[in-house]
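Renewal narrative, Specific Aim 1. Our central claim is that a sequence can be written position by position from structural information alone. The example that follows is taken directly from our test logs and has not been curated for this report. It begins with the structure tokens describing the chain, in the order in which they were read.
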């Protein structure tokens, strides 16, 4: 009876929500893009909700530790998760313990898809190629070529291996611990190419210290309209992007999800927020909660197949 009473208590949103601070868990350390974007949204959301919105960094197990903690939190709207899309693929590429394991499809309530971040393949000018066809031709001719990613099992690793398969080449993966060191090494010429987000390499592209070869999205990005997609270059099925969004624990009342969604959707329309997101190579998304649910489910199915077929793991 007590359990039923607790469940019933969570079924309807409190009319005074929020009446206390809201915590947003970020499953990565402070200082990175995910943390910075989360803090941008927290600041704006706090003003609209008239309550503090606090960022709680819980890194570990490739994000799974923080993600799991939110899946087990009370579904009362006071604990949220802000996450990039490795949320979807982490359980597919990692051997997770019972203390850091969550249900990607059924363990959360989608709140809103906040932004997308196109992935771009960049090359150090010193390797002597200016286009993706030239890079593929060099690899096929026997030239040893490398590509960096911010980590094994990341979206950047997935798109790199998927391109290898589609092009029939073996460009060697060099995993790093984060975006920053991978960018540092491709600029220095220690690795030939890298899959990254635009924000991480914008200054180097503008200065000509890196060359953009292709993007992984289905369409060209307005952040770099002259850079072709993999699909345009003949690899039609190779589509991998990055996104971020807010989730709440499963069972969070629909009225609370709706309130959060509407406020965040309005925040995403602010010119100031659009401008700040662009610094990170991100474009505002928004829309109803089910838009995030759909992109999460699609990535789980499509990326899951690629991960299994290519044997990609974070081990």
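The sequence written for that structure reads:
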């Amino acid at each position: 009876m007590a359990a039923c009473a607790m469940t019933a208590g969570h079924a309807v949103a409190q009319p005074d929500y929020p009446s206390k601070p809201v915590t947003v868990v970020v499953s990565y350390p402070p200082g990175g893009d995910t943390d910075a974007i989360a803090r941008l949204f927290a600041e704006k959301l706090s003003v609209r909700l008239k309550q503090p919105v606090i960022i709680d960094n819980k890194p570990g197990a490739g994000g799974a530790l923080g993600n799991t903690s939110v899946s087990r939190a009370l579904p009362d709207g006071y604990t949220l998760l802000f996450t990039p899309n490795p949320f979807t693929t982490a359980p597919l590429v990692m051997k997770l313990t019972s203390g850091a394991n969550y249900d990607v499809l059924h363990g959360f309530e989608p709140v809103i898809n906040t932004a997308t971040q196109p992935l771009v393949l960049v090359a150090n000018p010193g390797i002597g190629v200016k286009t993706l066809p030239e890079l593929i031709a060099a690899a096929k001719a026997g030239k040893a070529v490398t590509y960096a990613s911010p980590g094994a099992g990341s979206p950047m690793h997935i798109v790199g291996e998927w391109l290898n398969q589609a092009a029939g080449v073996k460009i060697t993966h060099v995993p790093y611990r984060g975006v920053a060191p991978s960018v540092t090494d491709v600029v220095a010429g220690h690795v030939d190419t890298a899959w990254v987000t635009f924000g991480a390499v914008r200054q180097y592209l503008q200065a000509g210290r890196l060359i953009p070869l292709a993007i992984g999205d289905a369409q060209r990005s307005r952040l770099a309209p002259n850079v072709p997609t993999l699909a345009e270059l003949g690899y039609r099925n190779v589509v991998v992007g990055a996104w971020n969004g807010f989730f709440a624990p499963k069972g969070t009342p629909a009225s609370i999800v709706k309130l959060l969604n509407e406020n965040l959707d309005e925040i995403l329309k602010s010119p100031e927020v659009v401008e700040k997101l662009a610094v990170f190579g991100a474009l505002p998304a928004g829309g109803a909660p089910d838009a995030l649910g759909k992109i999460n489910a699609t990535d789980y199915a499509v990326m899951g197949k690629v991960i299994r077929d290519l044997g990609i793991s974070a081990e």
